[in-house]
Amino acid sequence: MNATPEKPAVAKKAVTKKATAKKAVTKKAVAKKTTTAKQAAATKTTAKKTATKKAAKTAPAKAPAKKAAARKPESRVAMVRRARRINRELAELYPYAHPELDFTNPFELLVATVLSAQTTDLRVNQTTPHLFAVCPTPEDMAAMPPEKLEELIRPTGFFRAKTRSLLGLSAALRDRFGGEVPGRLEDLVTLPGVGRKTANVVLGNAFGVPGITVDTHFGRLARRFGWTTSEDAEKVEADVAEIFPKSEWTMLSHRVVFHGRRVCHSRKPACGACAIAPLCPSYGEGETDPEKARKLLKYELGGQPGQRLKPPADYPGQPAPPMAPPVAAS
Ligand code: SF4
User: Fold this and answer.
1) Which of 133, 137, 246, 290 is most buried, most CB within 10 Å of its CB?
2) Whether 221 and 306 share a structural domain
3) Residue 1 domain-assigned (yes or no)
4) Are 109 and 196 in a shared domain?
5) What range does the domain containing 161 cover?
6) pLDDT tens sequence across 204-250
């Protein structure tokens, strides 16, 4: 009988122990659950953070430079780095960039460049074969009757003023430079009709002297790229010269002009098909729809003939056609 009351006590103890153990297990389980949940939440947060970081890293490279520039003004160092990257990308895009005037010697290049004012290189290239066949040297050209020369160059427009320049520069080459084109800027700019732009074209492409050629395309793109704010060709030249090493000047000029003629047009730039859009603060000035933009591409990028009748061997496009013969009157 004595044992009877003892039994429930032991049992009670055992039950209490069991209950405590259960509580401990439950606590452990809850703790484990909480830890797991916490861990999962932490892992999720880390993953989210990594993805965000990754996205943040990727986004600026893909996003148009305009948005980044709008957030933060660009430092001079960053602008120079971006400019040099644009040059490298353009070099990859146009490894065959070259002057788009046909010539075989410095005199032909000088004459062709003077003729290229206010007209296309194509029109000049279609005009010069006959011109150079008739007057291949400065002496021959200087001896031409003005009316005859006017007729020969008429297709290039402004033919009276251009005739005066050609006669003047041919006579100057004959009388002051022994019939040779001088290889110095200070001499070239003394020739009638020859300014810095023409002189730089001749120096860079016929004499291997580095030069920046600021024509309408180069000036427009230099402003769109944020390399300059000036509309003045000489100031643009000086601003760009401070960004790039001299050894790059001539090829940089060709690449930028190539891009201006093919993609970054004056009125409707093909932003949606532009390889350097992520580096360009003016992205969005033109067509951004890729499909529509692709239709705006010109010359070899648009599947059309180029400007030179005799392009260099590595040019991937088709040569330009010769001048169409005049239609006979019926
Ligand atoms: S086409 Fe558009 S994105 Fe490309 S260089 Fe010109 S303005 Fe910039």
Assistant:
1) 137
2) yes
3) no
4) yes
5) 100-209
6) 999 999 999 999 999 999 999 999 999 999 999 999 999 999 999 99
pTM: 0.77
Q: Does 40 have pLDDT greater than 50? A: no
Number of domains in the chain: 2
Question: Residue ranges for the binding site for [4Fe-4S] cluster?
Answer: 264, 271, 274, 280
**Are 195 and 285 in a shared domain?**
no
DSSP SS3 for 318:
strand
Ligand 1 proximity of 90 Cβ (cutoff 6 Å): no
Torsion, Cα 44 48 51 53, to 10 degrees, reads: -130
Is the same domain home to 255 and 117?
no
Q: What's the CATH code of the domain at 259?
A: 1.10.1670.10
Is residue 35 domain-resident? no
Radius of gyration of the chain (CA): 36
Q: Which residue has the higher pLDDT, 214 or 18?
A: 214
* Same domain (yes/no): 168, 302: no
Asked whether 189 and 182 are in contact (CB, 8 A), the reply is no
Residue 229 Cα, ligand 1 centroid: separation in angstroms? Answer: 16
- Please identify which residue in the block is written with the tokens 């040297």: 137
Q: How would you label 105-126 residue by residue, b for 16+ Cβ within 10 Å and e otherwise?
A: ebbbbbbbbbbbbeeebbbbbb
Indicate whether residue 224 lines ligand 1 (CB < 6 A): yes
